[in-house]
């Protein structure tokens, strides 16, 4: 683990400690409360399935949020097997996060993808293509569109946002893309961050939200 990865892992852990939350951002009680209209109620569930109603008057500090990551770190042996199945190695930062902090389940959206569900790395059974070819075809476009019957090679799913929207790491370039279905059997990709480190730095600074782009 290099110094930069070690430092970022430590800051991720400190963020979780400070906010008293080690799970997906979508389920933070304070965030659920902030999205409610007056008179509305939403239910939050702990890891044992116990239900807690949340409304505008709820003191969310009294909700028993979790004090540890839900999933244990993945072993080096298992990580090597996962990388073999993926067909590529994870960058040092992801390697450090999965082997030191947790096997996903925390962070942006519905949480960093678990490596026990590696199908998300190539979500669709499709012909793999070089994503840069489509970028060169429309260099000024905000969204890079690809047909629904192909899929970018070496894209790793970072997290799910709901509504069939995902964030992917392009292993080749190190950039992070937000992907969504745009109809007419096409998928659109928009650059979300120029590097994985920048993506996590954004999350550490102010969080990342589904409709940021």
From TrEMBL:
InterPro entries assigned: Knr4/Smi1-like_dom (IPR018958), Knr4/Smi1-like_sf (IPR037883)
UniProt domain Knr4/Smi1-like: residue ranges: 73-206
Tree of life domain: Bacteria
Pfam families: SMI1_KNR4
Signal sequence bounds: none
Protein name stated in the entry: Knr4/Smi1-like domain-containing protein
Taxonomic classification: Bacteria, Bacillati, Chloroflexota, Ktedonobacteria, Ktedonobacterales
